[in-house]
Design goal:
Blueprint: H1 3-17, H2 23-29, H3 35-61, H4 66-80, H5 88-98, H6 103-108, H7 114-129, H8 132-137, H9 145-159, H10 169-192, H11 196-224
Length: 238
């Protein structure tokens, strides 16, 4: 494939598989969930948010390309924070605080669904163990994130009286950060996926990442919506 054809194939993965299509997101953004179900989503999603710096650090640790390391480093500080910026993980905890969840409980991840933890760790291991090209390509779900964040901001502000601008600050910030990150990663994949095998691997990596995200919502739906099978030890809304 030419670089343009490869990009089109990657965007097709997003159009068909990104988790904005999941029924749980339709319920969340449409105001169809109760507060306990929104709490369950935010608590479980924290597992993913808190793992992002770990997976990015594992990519940097085995990267020989100084320019790639320098570019990728800000992804860690975007989430962990630095002087003058609390970071995305802290902004996510502001969200769970606003939803009435105990911060220590959220950070412990004790109440997260087992399947959430397994899916998140599968992603961390993927980035650590696969080729650098596949690790970068797996981040390309960020190509599709801004639209989802816009839907989430407008939908949650409109439908839930327990959501305000302070609570959704994480998503406002990602409207700027995600496109920047996605543009760099897409350019890297376009330049470095030259052979059919490399291109197939890049598409497969993005597909895998969409499955990681989709799986998390599957299990939220089955546990907290229908049929409501919450596993032992997992968060139970009151």
């Amino acid at each position: 494939m030419t670089p343009d054809e490869l990009e089109a194939a990657l965007r097709k993965v997003g159009a068909e598989r990104y988790h904005n299509l999941h029924p749980f997101h339709h319920l969340l953004h449409g105001g169809k969930l109760n507060k306990g179900q929104v709490q369950a989503w935010a608590l479980n999603r924290y597992c993913y948010q808190s793992a992002i710096p770990r997976k990015d650090a594992s990519l940097i640790a085995r990267c020989e390309d100084r320019e790639l390391r320098r570019e990728w480093l800000h992804r860690i500080t975007d989430h962990d924070g630095q002087e003058g910026d609390f970071g995305g993980i802290e902004r996510w905890l502001v969200l769970t605080d606003g939803l009435g969840l105990d911060r220590d409980y959220v950070m412990s991840r004790r109440g997260a669904l087992p399947a959430t933890r397994f899916a998140v760790e599968a992603y961390v291991h993927f980035v650590r163990e696969k080729s650098l090209l596949e690790a970068v390509a797996s981040s390309l779900t960020e190509l599709f994130a801004p639209k989802l964040h816009e839907e989430r901001i407008s939908g949650m502000l409109e439908h839930y009286d327990f959501i305000d601008e302070k609570v959704i600050a994480y998503f406002r910030r990602r409207l700027d950060q995600a496109p920047r990150d996605a543009d760099f990663a897409l350019d890297y994949v376009r330049r470095n996926a030259r052979t059919p095998e490399q291109q197939e691997a890049a598409i497969g990596a993005l597909t895998f990442k969409t499955e990681v995200l989709w799986t998390q919502l599957d299990n939220l739906y089955f546990a907290y919506v229908d049929p409501g099978m919450i596993p032992p030890g997992a968060f139970r809304p009151t």
